[in-house]
Specification:
globular, binds glutamine, six-stranded mixed sheet, 5 helices, four-stranded mixed sheet, about 240 residues
Amino acid sequence: MSTVRLCHLYPAEMSIYADRGNIAVLRRRLEWRGMTLEVTGAGLGEPIDDTFDVYYLGGGQDRDQEVVAADLGPTKADALRSATDDGAVFLAVCGGYQLAGHGYTGVDGSRMPGIGLLDVDTVASTGPRLIGDVIIDAELDGVHRRLVGFENHAGRTSLGDVRPLGRVVHGHGNDGASGGEGATRDHIIGTYLHGPLLPKNPALADAVLGWALGHAGHDAALEPLDDALETRAHAVAASRAGVRR
Ligand code: GLN
Protein backbone atom coordinates (compact mmCIF):
# COMPACT_ATOMS: atom_id res chain seq x y z
CA MET A 1 0.00 0.00 0.00
CA SER A 2 1.33 3.48 -0.87
CA THR A 3 2.24 5.55 2.15
CA VAL A 4 3.10 9.24 2.42
CA ARG A 5 5.29 10.22 5.38
CA LEU A 6 4.63 13.60 6.98
CA CYS A 7 6.66 15.37 9.64
CA HIS A 8 4.54 17.71 11.79
CA LEU A 9 6.93 20.33 13.14
CA TYR A 10 6.26 21.63 16.65
CA PRO A 11 2.70 20.30 17.00
CA ALA A 12 2.56 21.51 20.62
CA GLU A 13 3.72 25.07 19.95
CA MET A 14 2.57 25.81 16.40
CA SER A 15 -0.97 24.48 15.98
CA ILE A 16 -3.20 27.38 16.94
CA TYR A 17 -5.15 27.62 13.70
CA ALA A 18 -6.67 24.16 13.45
CA ASP A 19 -3.42 22.99 11.88
CA ARG A 20 -4.27 19.40 12.74
CA GLY A 21 -7.30 19.84 10.44
CA ASN A 22 -4.93 20.29 7.52
CA ILE A 23 -3.18 17.05 8.35
CA ALA A 24 -6.51 15.23 8.82
CA VAL A 25 -7.50 16.31 5.30
CA LEU A 26 -4.29 14.96 3.80
CA ARG A 27 -4.80 11.68 5.65
CA ARG A 28 -8.44 11.28 4.59
CA ARG A 29 -7.87 12.17 0.94
CA LEU A 30 -5.17 9.49 0.79
CA GLU A 31 -7.33 6.92 2.60
CA TRP A 32 -10.25 7.51 0.23
CA ARG A 33 -7.86 6.44 -2.52
CA GLY A 34 -6.56 3.36 -0.69
CA MET A 35 -3.34 4.96 0.57
CA THR A 36 -2.10 5.99 4.01
CA LEU A 37 -0.47 8.90 5.79
CA GLU A 38 2.13 8.30 8.48
CA VAL A 39 2.61 11.30 10.78
CA THR A 40 5.66 11.90 12.95
CA GLY A 41 5.75 14.86 15.33
CA ALA A 42 8.99 16.74 15.95
CA GLY A 43 9.11 19.12 18.88
CA LEU A 44 11.64 21.32 20.64
CA GLY A 45 15.12 19.85 20.75
CA GLU A 46 14.27 16.95 18.46
CA PRO A 47 16.44 16.68 15.35
CA ILE A 48 14.72 15.51 12.17
CA ASP A 49 16.01 13.78 9.06
CA ASP A 50 15.46 14.65 5.42
CA THR A 51 13.51 11.55 4.40
CA PHE A 52 9.92 12.77 4.84
CA ASP A 53 7.68 13.51 1.87
CA VAL A 54 5.90 16.44 3.55
CA TYR A 55 6.93 18.81 6.33
CA TYR A 56 4.21 20.88 8.00
CA LEU A 57 4.71 23.97 10.18
CA GLY A 58 1.65 25.81 11.47
CA GLY A 59 0.98 29.10 13.20
CA GLY A 60 1.76 30.24 16.72
CA GLN A 61 1.55 33.11 19.15
CA ASP A 62 4.61 35.38 19.16
CA ARG A 63 5.70 33.81 22.46
CA ASP A 64 5.69 30.27 21.09
CA GLN A 65 7.13 31.42 17.80
CA GLU A 66 10.13 32.83 19.66
CA VAL A 67 10.97 29.48 21.28
CA VAL A 68 10.48 27.66 17.99
CA ALA A 69 12.64 30.17 16.09
CA ALA A 70 15.53 29.49 18.44
CA ASP A 71 15.19 25.73 17.95
CA LEU A 72 14.48 25.49 14.22
CA GLY A 73 17.93 26.51 12.99
CA PRO A 74 19.98 24.21 15.23
CA THR A 75 17.79 21.10 15.05
CA LYS A 76 15.85 21.14 11.78
CA ALA A 77 17.03 23.66 9.16
CA ASP A 78 19.66 21.44 7.48
CA ALA A 79 17.25 18.53 7.02
CA LEU A 80 14.52 20.85 5.72
CA ARG A 81 16.92 22.40 3.22
CA SER A 82 18.15 19.05 1.99
CA ALA A 83 14.65 17.53 1.81
CA THR A 84 13.14 20.45 -0.09
CA ASP A 85 16.12 20.50 -2.49
CA ASP A 86 15.19 16.88 -3.18
CA GLY A 87 11.56 17.76 -3.99
CA ALA A 88 9.89 17.17 -0.63
CA VAL A 89 6.90 19.38 0.21
CA PHE A 90 7.10 22.05 2.90
CA LEU A 91 3.78 23.64 3.81
CA ALA A 92 4.22 26.55 6.21
CA VAL A 93 1.22 28.49 7.49
CA CYS A 94 1.16 31.92 9.13
CA GLY A 95 3.81 31.98 11.89
CA GLY A 96 5.33 28.97 10.14
CA TYR A 97 5.45 30.92 6.87
CA GLN A 98 7.28 33.76 8.62
CA LEU A 99 9.90 31.34 9.99
CA ALA A 100 10.29 29.59 6.63
CA GLY A 101 11.55 32.99 5.48
CA HIS A 102 14.53 34.94 6.80
CA GLY A 103 12.80 35.84 10.03
CA TYR A 104 10.18 37.78 11.91
CA THR A 105 10.64 40.96 13.89
CA GLY A 106 7.91 41.03 16.53
CA VAL A 107 5.94 44.02 17.83
CA ASP A 108 8.44 44.50 20.67
CA GLY A 109 11.32 44.60 18.18
CA SER A 110 12.69 41.17 19.05
CA ARG A 111 14.07 39.27 16.08
CA MET A 112 13.07 35.65 15.53
CA PRO A 113 15.39 34.12 12.96
CA GLY A 114 13.90 32.01 10.20
CA ILE A 115 15.59 29.43 8.02
CA GLY A 116 15.52 31.31 4.72
CA LEU A 117 13.97 28.59 2.59
CA LEU A 118 11.73 31.28 1.13
CA ASP A 119 13.26 34.64 0.25
CA VAL A 120 10.82 36.64 2.38
CA ASP A 121 11.15 38.74 5.50
CA THR A 122 8.51 39.82 8.00
CA VAL A 123 8.23 42.75 10.37
CA ALA A 124 5.31 43.21 12.76
CA SER A 125 3.47 46.45 12.33
CA THR A 126 2.26 48.53 15.24
CA GLY A 127 -0.71 49.34 13.01
CA PRO A 128 -3.83 47.21 12.82
CA ARG A 129 -3.54 43.43 12.59
CA LEU A 130 -4.48 42.11 9.20
CA ILE A 131 -7.56 40.03 9.94
CA GLY A 132 -10.37 38.63 7.84
CA ASP A 133 -11.48 36.37 5.03
CA VAL A 134 -9.15 36.11 2.09
CA ILE A 135 -9.56 35.04 -1.52
CA ILE A 136 -6.56 34.62 -3.76
CA ASP A 137 -5.98 33.55 -7.33
CA ALA A 138 -3.10 31.08 -7.42
CA GLU A 139 -1.50 28.82 -9.96
CA LEU A 140 -0.79 25.24 -8.91
CA ASP A 141 1.04 22.98 -11.33
CA GLY A 142 0.21 25.46 -14.08
CA VAL A 143 -3.53 25.42 -13.34
CA HIS A 144 -5.39 28.50 -12.10
CA ARG A 145 -7.00 27.90 -8.70
CA ARG A 146 -9.00 30.21 -6.47
CA LEU A 147 -8.07 29.62 -2.82
CA VAL A 148 -9.96 30.82 0.26
CA GLY A 149 -9.02 31.17 3.90
CA PHE A 150 -8.83 33.41 6.93
CA GLU A 151 -5.87 35.57 7.94
CA ASN A 152 -4.85 37.06 11.28
CA HIS A 153 -1.37 38.52 11.52
CA ALA A 154 0.56 41.55 12.72
CA GLY A 155 3.45 40.75 10.40
CA ARG A 156 3.94 42.49 7.06
CA THR A 157 5.86 40.17 4.75
CA SER A 158 8.00 41.44 1.89
CA LEU A 159 9.18 39.17 -0.89
CA GLY A 160 12.64 39.02 -2.44
CA ASP A 161 13.46 36.61 -5.24
CA VAL A 162 10.38 34.41 -4.92
CA ARG A 163 6.90 34.55 -6.37
CA PRO A 164 3.75 35.06 -4.31
CA LEU A 165 1.49 32.04 -3.91
CA GLY A 166 -1.37 34.08 -5.30
CA ARG A 167 -2.84 37.45 -6.15
CA VAL A 168 -5.21 38.89 -3.56
CA VAL A 169 -8.80 39.15 -4.79
CA HIS A 170 -10.15 40.00 -1.34
CA GLY A 171 -8.34 40.54 1.96
CA HIS A 172 -4.87 41.78 2.90
CA GLY A 173 -2.32 39.11 1.98
CA ASN A 174 1.39 39.55 2.66
CA ASP A 175 1.37 43.21 3.66
CA GLY A 176 -1.99 44.74 2.84
CA ALA A 177 -0.46 46.74 0.00
CA SER A 178 1.42 44.71 -2.60
CA GLY A 179 -1.50 42.56 -3.74
CA GLY A 180 0.42 39.33 -3.17
CA GLU A 181 -0.34 36.52 -0.74
CA GLY A 182 2.12 33.92 0.45
CA ALA A 183 5.22 32.77 -1.38
CA THR A 184 6.20 29.62 -3.23
CA ARG A 185 9.06 27.93 -5.02
CA ASP A 186 9.53 24.29 -5.98
CA HIS A 187 7.29 22.36 -3.56
CA ILE A 188 7.53 24.91 -0.76
CA ILE A 189 4.41 26.90 0.07
CA GLY A 190 4.20 29.65 2.65
CA THR A 191 0.83 31.29 3.25
CA TYR A 192 -1.17 33.30 5.76
CA LEU A 193 -4.34 31.40 4.87
CA HIS A 194 -5.67 29.26 7.69
CA GLY A 195 -8.96 28.44 9.15
CA PRO A 196 -7.76 25.61 8.44
CA LEU A 197 -6.57 25.88 4.88
CA LEU A 198 -7.01 22.48 3.24
CA PRO A 199 -10.63 21.40 4.03
CA LYS A 200 -12.05 24.12 1.80
CA ASN A 201 -9.27 24.06 -0.79
CA PRO A 202 -9.26 20.46 -2.05
CA ALA A 203 -7.28 21.42 -5.17
CA LEU A 204 -4.44 22.61 -2.97
CA ALA A 205 -4.66 19.48 -0.81
CA ASP A 206 -4.36 17.33 -3.93
CA ALA A 207 -1.47 19.37 -5.32
CA VAL A 208 0.38 18.74 -2.05
CA LEU A 209 -0.48 15.04 -2.16
CA GLY A 210 0.58 14.69 -5.79
CA TRP A 211 3.98 16.23 -5.02
CA ALA A 212 4.32 14.07 -1.91
CA LEU A 213 3.46 10.84 -3.75
CA GLY A 214 5.94 11.73 -6.48
CA HIS A 215 8.61 12.31 -3.84
CA ALA A 216 7.76 8.97 -2.23
CA GLY A 217 8.28 7.26 -5.60
CA HIS A 218 4.60 6.45 -6.12
CA ASP A 219 2.26 7.31 -8.97
CA ALA A 220 1.41 10.98 -8.44
CA ALA A 221 -1.82 10.85 -10.48
CA LEU A 222 -4.77 11.08 -8.08
CA GLU A 223 -8.24 9.76 -8.85
CA PRO A 224 -10.79 12.56 -8.55
CA LEU A 225 -12.96 12.51 -5.43
CA ASP A 226 -16.51 13.67 -4.89
CA ASP A 227 -15.74 17.14 -3.52
CA ALA A 228 -19.34 18.37 -3.20
CA LEU A 229 -18.99 19.19 0.50
CA GLU A 230 -15.54 20.75 0.09
CA THR A 231 -16.82 22.83 -2.83
CA ARG A 232 -19.69 24.09 -0.68
CA ALA A 233 -17.29 25.01 2.14
CA HIS A 234 -15.19 26.86 -0.42
CA ALA A 235 -18.25 28.71 -1.72
CA VAL A 236 -19.38 29.70 1.78
CA ALA A 237 -15.94 31.12 2.59
CA ALA A 238 -15.85 32.94 -0.72
CA SER A 239 -19.30 34.46 -0.30
CA ARG A 240 -18.48 35.49 3.27
CA ALA A 241 -15.56 37.38 1.80
CA GLY A 242 -17.99 39.06 -0.56
CA VAL A 243 -17.05 37.42 -3.84
CA ARG A 244 -18.89 34.56 -5.49
CA ARG A 245 -17.03 31.66 -7.11
N1 GLN B 1 2.81 36.15 15.31
C1 GLN B 1 2.68 36.33 13.90
C2 GLN B 1 1.93 37.59 13.49
O1 GLN B 1 1.08 38.07 14.20
C3 GLN B 1 1.98 35.13 13.32
C4 GLN B 1 0.68 34.91 13.98
C5 GLN B 1 0.01 33.77 13.44
O2 GLN B 1 0.56 32.66 13.35
N2 GLN B 1 -1.22 34.04 13.17
O3 GLN B 1 2.22 38.13 12.45
